[in-house]
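Thread title: Can someone regenerate the structure for this chain?

I was given the following input by a collaborator and told the matching structure tokens would be attached. They weren't. Posting the sequence so someone can regenerate them.
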Amino acid sequence: MIHIDFHDETNSVDEAFVDLVERVIQFAGEKENIAGENELSVTFVDNKEIQELNRNYRQKDYPTDVISFAMQELGEGEVEVQNEDLPVLLGDIVVSVDKAKEQAEDYKHSLEREFAFLALHGFLHLLGYDHMNEEDEKNMFARQEDILNEFGLQRS
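Best answer:
Regenerated them for you:
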């Protein structure tokens, strides 16, 4: 079971989108065999806010669509500490509502699919998926498509 803490800093995200994101992440968690109690947050922001995060954490000064902050990645010299009585904190996913709207229009698919895609993309990053090289990118994007298709959100 994954507990998801939602924050809408734009005050513009419809409850139906929040519910969809919740269901997609839970579905992906099952597909990825996530066991035990897990926790993550999803925050909806505007382009200005995500540009700030992108600049501060990734040294890229432009708005992006989704950023993830994984809590389970061990840095150099860090030791994994796991208390079985506590939920595993997977991390935070930040989605730009502005970018989601732009991209839904650009790709000519529904805003629902774009929100689901971005949340799933962020979630897979929290699980350790990456796209730093071509092979990893192929794996990650294939996994996203498989999960979205199985969930019933095919590309239109």
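The longest strand covers residues 88-96.
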